[in-house]
Amino acid sequence: MQEPLLRDPGPDYDTFPEEPPSPTAARPAKAPQNKRLFLAAFAAVLGNFSFGFALVYTSPVIPALESSPNSALHMTKVESSWFGSVFTLGAAAGGLSAMLLNDLLGRKLSIMFSALPSAAGYALMAGASRLWMLLLGRTLTGFAGGLTAACIPVYVSEISHPRVRGALGATPQIMAVFGSLSLYALGLKLPWRWLAVAGEVPVLVMILLLCFMPDSPRFLLSQGKDEEALRALAWLRGKDADICQEFQQIQETAQSRNGRMSWAEIKDPFVYKPIFISVLMRFLQQLTGVTPILVYLQSIFKGTAGFLLPEYDAAIVGAVRLVSVLIAAATMDKAGRKILLFVSASVMFAANLALGLYVLLTAPREIHNGTVPHPGGALGDPGSVAAPESPNYITLIPLIATMLFIMGYAMGWGPITWLLMSEVLPLKARGVASGLCVLVSWLTAFALTKAFLLVVEDFGLEVPFLFFAAICLVNLIFTGCCVPETKGRTLEQIEHFFRTGRWLLVK
């Protein structure tokens, strides 16, 4: 095997330097490199902002429409469950389409294409006069979310320098969280139609910025566009950066992995092992319960007789989620991926267990004709919850437990599953496999979100949370047995690990 070309002492882009570069040599090129790279990443992850905004759109809207006097828009429990879950069905379709578009159009154009269904979906919901318009709009925004969830992490990973790939790899999750928090905050002031209008803004800004951004150099090289790839890499790294080593290394990798993946190659452990890890991580990520919790957040707080108003609880949880994912981004390249996954699963287990036990132990032993408040009863049912006559601080447990769950998720299993998917998948399979990951993820989310209200109605709110707690234990075992540590590794080194079982050492 040819030795990796990492020895030419570039002033700001020497991944594994033999000698520490002098301060005077490193400073001039670092700023423009980072500014351009971060601008390209920001332009792309605006799609994740829109995704996060659309995902939790139902949280303030379902309670409003369930009590709406307009018979054409009034929602029953069954219709509410469809309105909450159809987004994930659209996202699964978006992930399926990404399996083709990621390699057909490229990463950047696929992200830009997602703006069409997103804008159309928000317009339908803003002007809805019938329930079918709300459901179709929700499906279209879900399709756009599934497409961006598959394309954006791959794009960001492929344009990033190894030293900042962990931090930039967390930006899709950060922006999705920021989008959700923005929805919760705006929901305190704006009616539901104007929330849909506000959702159009990040979509339009994303399209405008991406028009001026380059495509992924790795994708361009895989398409035989060497000169365009060189220009793209030079733009991303800055005019003073020495990109010869990096370009040659990526070029050699792209040439050796060129062409479409055949069915015979799937039998190669180098291919199926990272695909298996990525798909199973996305599957287990959804089974922790994050999507139904976010979609029905206000209804959950309403069903647990919380100390604060449900809309304020939701906004607090959104703020905690944003702070947590920022902490994860800052520590990911220092602490490592696996340690954060362990901490994340442990915190989520404790939070889900606490919330499940709270509902189980505070539910009255006898319920007569549904007149006694029952935290485990139907979500959002005004007759099922009675506000406490005097302050009862034990009712803060649902808020604290949910905050801990979101904190744990946002520090590990939220951003790292997105990042690892884009890191471990081989270049030849990256476009198709990332779409497969999103497809599996959102089909799982659809099943959970659709069944959540029905399970709560029949068995009580404690049952899904105790199930989610058990899944978090499975996540701990899976992390220890199957997930490799990719901190500080180039994408080429990670591919070498799955091909040989050994990390490529560079002296």
TrEMBL record:
Keyword terms: Glycoprotein, Lysosome, Membrane, Sugar transport, Transmembrane, Transmembrane helix, Transport
Membrane topology: Multi-pass membrane protein
Record has Transmembrane as a keyword: yes
Keyword Signal attributed: no
Ranges where the record places region Disordered: 1-29
Compartments where located: Lysosome membrane
Molecular function (Gene Ontology), one example: transmembrane transporter activity
Transmembrane regions listed in the UniProt entry: 37-62, 82-102, 109-129, 135-156, 168-186, 192-213, 339-361, 393-420, 432-453, 465-483
Xref: Gene3D superfamilies: MFS general substrate transporter like domains (1.20.1250.20)
Predominant subcellular localization, coarse grouping: membrane
Start and end residues of each Major facilitator superfamily (MFS) profile domain: 40-487
GO CC, one annotated term: membrane
Pfam families (UniProt xref): Sugar_tr
Biological processes, Gene Ontology terms: regulation of glycolytic process; transmembrane transport
InterPro entries named in the record: MFS_dom, MFS_sugar_transport-like, MFS_trans_sf, MFS_Trehalose_Transporter, Sugar/inositol_transpt, Sugar_transporter_CS
Protein family membership: Belongs to the major facilitator superfamily. Sugar transporter (TC 2.A.1.1) family.
Stored NCBIfam families: SP
General function of this protein: Probable sugar transporter that acts as a regulator of glycolysis in macrophages. Does not transport glucose.
Protein name per its UniProtKB record: Solute carrier family 2, facilitated glucose transporter member 6
